[in-house]
Amino acid sequence: MQQSAPLLTITDLRVTVAGKEILTGMNLVVRAGEVHAIMGPNGSGKSTLAHVLAGRDGYTITSGSVSFRDQDLLAMEPEERARAGLFLGFQYPVEVPGVSNVYLLRAALNARRKARGEAEIDAAQFLRLVREKAKLMQMNESFLNRGVNEGFSGGEKKRNEIFQMAVLDPVLGILDETDSGLDIDALKVVANGVNSQRGPDRAFVLITHYQRLLDYIRPDFVHVLAGGQIIRTGDRSLALELEAEGYDQTVAAAKSQTQTAAR
Amino acid sequence: MDSKLQNPGLNELVNRRYQHGFVTDIESDTVPPGHSEQVIRFISQKKDEPAFLLEWRLKAYRHWLTMREPGWARLHYPPIDYQDISYFSAPRKTPGLKSIDEVDPKLLATYEKLGVPLHERARLAGVAVDAVFDSVSVTTTFRDKLAAAGVIFCSFSEAAREHPELIRQYLGTVVPYRDNYFAALNSAMFTDGSFVYIPKGVRCPMELSTYFRINQAKTGQFERTLIIAEEGSHVSYLEGCTAPQRDENQLHAAVVELVALKDATIKYSTVQNWYPGDEEGRGGIYNFVTKRGDCRGANSKISWTQVEAGSAITWKYPSCILRGDNSVGEFYSVAVTNNLQQADTGTKMIHIGRNTRSTIVSKGIAAGRSQSAYRGLVKVLPTAEGARNFTQCDSLLMGSRSAAHTYPYMEIRNPGAIVEHEATTSKIGDDQLFYCRQRGLSQEDAVNLIVNGFCKQVFRELPMEFAVEAQNLLNVSLEGAVG
C-alpha cells in the first residue's frame, strides 16, 4: 500500500487512572485509508486508549503526545476532536431519554458545520441523508425518532453507533468493541456499514477482543496490546494466530523476544 | 464517580444572572407594613368592593389569626414576620383606565422590558393579557374581541364590582378560606388577580394570559384568580411571573380556583420565574400558593402544566377534585432548582366521581445545592368506581450537592381503582455528557439537550407560544449547572 500522510500519530503515550499506569508507552501511526485492529486481553488498556483519544475525563496523561491531522489532540476538548473528524463508537452506547436520534444527529451535524463556518444543514437534505444511512444499516425509520438508544437492544445500540458514524462522516472512526454482544446477523450488518465507509481518506481503529469481527472487516494491520503497549504488529494472520494460540502464549512469546532483543 | 461530577463547566454555568431583576422607579401608594382589620378595610375600600366581600375577608382574617404556619413541607427558612410585610402597593396613576393609552408609560416600558408588550398590536396574535403590577391590575388587552364571544376576562377587582353575583356564587367554593394557612391569609388580604368566565358552549377564541410582576420592596403579593368554565366551554390560560432582584425575601401567597362544569375543559399553564435569590441564597421570593380545580360536572377536564424555575422557596400543589363522572385531571410539572433554591411541589388528585381519570407527570431537576421534593396525593373515594391514576415522577440531579425527594401518598378506598406509580432518580451523567460531546455538541448544548429531553413530556403540554419560552427559561436557569 502506498504511504499516505499520517492521520493519527501516538508517541510514547503513558496514561494513569487513579494512580495506576494503564498505558505504558504506546506508539501507533494510522494513515488515511488504513484499517488497524487493536487486540488484546482484558485489562490491557484497549478501552483506555479509546477514551483517551476521544478526550474523556478521568485519565491522567503523564507523558507522550498524540497528533491528529497535525493538531495536538490531547489539548482539544472532546467536542473539538469530534468536529475535527474523530468518531468514537462506544462499547456501551449511552441512553439519552426524550432526545430523538435524529435530533441529536442534527445538533451534532450542525455543531460541526458551525465550527467550520458553514450554514446549518437544510432539513430536506438532512432527512435524505439519514434515510439513506438508516437503509444502509438496515434500520427501520422508526428508530430515527426514538429516544437515543432508549430501550434499544444491545445489537440495535451498536448498529446505531455505526449509523451515527455514517451520518457524521468522520475521517477517523475508533470502534470500541463494537462486535461484543452481536449475533452473527447483526455483526454482518455492522461490518457492512463499516466497509461501505472505507475509503482512501478515512481510517479506522477497531478495538476488539475477538478475531471474528476481522472475518468481515479485513484490517491492514493487527496490533497486540498488552501491559499498556503494543507488543506485536502483523497482518491479519496475526489475528488468526492469536485465536488459535490464545493471548497468554502470544504475550509470553512476545515478551521473551523483547527481552532477548534487549540483551 | 462523585468527584468526577464536578466538571469545571458546572460552576461557571450556574453563575448566570437573573434577567428580570430590575426595579421600576414609579410612584406608588404603599400601606405601611403590618396586618389588621383596618388594613383589610382599606384594601376593600380602595377597590370599591361589595360589602359581602369585605365580610368574607374579615372572616378569613379572623380565622387566619387562629391558625399556625404549616411545617410539614421539606423547606427550611427563617420565620416570616407577617407584621413586616406591606399588604397593599399600587402604582399611583392607574385606577379606572379606559384604554392602554392612559397607562403610565413607565409601566408599559416595564412590561416591554419583560417581553410582555401590552399594546395589542405588539402582542402575539391570539393571546390576551392581564398585567398585574404589585397589588393591582394595570390593563387587560383584547377585551372587546373577548366580549364579542361573551367571555369575561378582567382583573379580579373589576369582576368584584361588575359581576358580584358570579364572585359571590363561586369565590371560595374550591379553596375555602379555612383550607390552609396561606389560603386564609390570601382570602383576607388578596389584592388583585384575574377573573375569567367562559359562557356555556363557548370555546375561548384566544389564549388568556396573566403576567404578574412584583416591583415594590417589602410588599407581599396576594393575588387571587378565579376561572369559571360553563357547560361545554373551553379555555386555555397561562400565567407568568417575575420580580426584581433584592436581598430580602418577599412573600407571594396566591390562590387560584378553577371551576369546570359539565363537558368543560380548563387548561392552566404556569411559567413561574420569580426572583430565585443569589448564589448564596440571599433574597428571592417565597412562593406559597394554593391552586385547585374542581371538575364539578360530568366529562369535565382540568389540566395543570407548570414550569417552576424561580422563587427561593416554592410550596405549591395544583390539584384536581374529580367530582363529575368521567372527569379528567392532569398535572404536568417541571420544577428546576439551582443554587440554594428549595421546591416542595406536586399535586393532589381527589377521585370522587365514577370513571374519573388522572395523570401526573412530574419532572424535578436539582442543581447546585438546591433541594427538590415531589409531594403528591392520589385519593380514591369509595364512590369513585372505575377510577384510574397514572403517576410518573422523575428526578434529575446535577452535581453532587443537590438533592431530590419523592413523597407519594395514596389513599385508595375503592378496591376497583387502578393506580400506577413510577419513579426514577438519575444523575445527569458524565456518560451522557461525554457521549453528546463526542458527537460534537458543546458541554452547554449537551446539558440543554439532555435536560430538554428529560422534560419533553411536560413541554409538549404547553401552548405552542410558550413552549419555546419555557425551554429557554430552563436553559438559562441551569446555565452552568453541569456536573
Q: Can you put this structure into words, describing what you see?
A:
The complex is a heterodimer of chains A (263) and B (483). Chain A is built from nine helices and twelve strands. With 263 residues, chain A is α/β, with parallel strands linked by helices. Chain A has a domain at 6-92 and 171-262: 3-Layer(aba) Sandwich (Rossmann fold). A six-stranded mixed sheet of chain A has the order 6-9-10-3-11-12, sandwiched between helices. In chain A, strands 2-1-4-5 form a four-stranded antiparallel sheet, covered by helices on one side. Chain A is globular and about 60 Å long. Chain B has one domain. Chain B has helices at 8-14, 37-46, 51-65, 105-113, 143-148, 156-162, 164-170, 181-189, 430-438, 443-459, 464-477; strands at residues 28-30, 89-91, 127-133, 136-140, 152-155, 194-198, 207-213, 224-229, 234-242, 249-252, 255-260, 265-272, 284-295, 301-308, 313-316, 319-322, 328-337, 342-351, 357-366, 371-380, 388-397, 403-412, 418-427. Chain B is globular and about 65 Å long. The chains are: A alpha/beta (263), B alpha/beta (483).
Low-confidence stretches of chain B: 1-16
Quick one: overall form of chain B?
Answer: globular
Q: Assign an overall shape of chain A.
A: globular
Would you identify the regions of chain A where 5 or more consecutive residues have pLDDT less than 50? none
Number of domains of chain B: 1
Q: Return the CATH topology of the domain at 6-92 and 171-262 in chain A.
A: Rossmann fold
Strand order of the largest sheet of chain A: 6-9-10-3-11-12
Overall mean confidence score, pLDDT of chain B: 84
Q: What is the count of β-strands of chain B?
A: 23
Report the CATH superfamily of the domain at 6-92 and 171-262 in chain A: P-loop containing nucleotide triphosphate hydrolases
User: How many individual helices of chain B?
Assistant: 11
Q: Report the end-to-end length of chain A measured between terminal Cα atoms.
A: 34 Å
CATH architecture of the domain at 6-92 and 171-262 in chain A: 3-Layer(aba) Sandwich
Highest-level CATH class of the domain at 6-92 and 171-262 in chain A: Alpha Beta
Total helical segments of chain A? 9
Q: Classify the helix fraction of chain A into a percent range.
A: 40-55%
Indicate the radius of gyration of chain B in whole angstroms: 22 Å
Helix residue percentage of chain B: 10-25%
The largest chain-to-chain contact, stated as pair and per-chain residue counts, equals: A-B, 33 and 25 residues
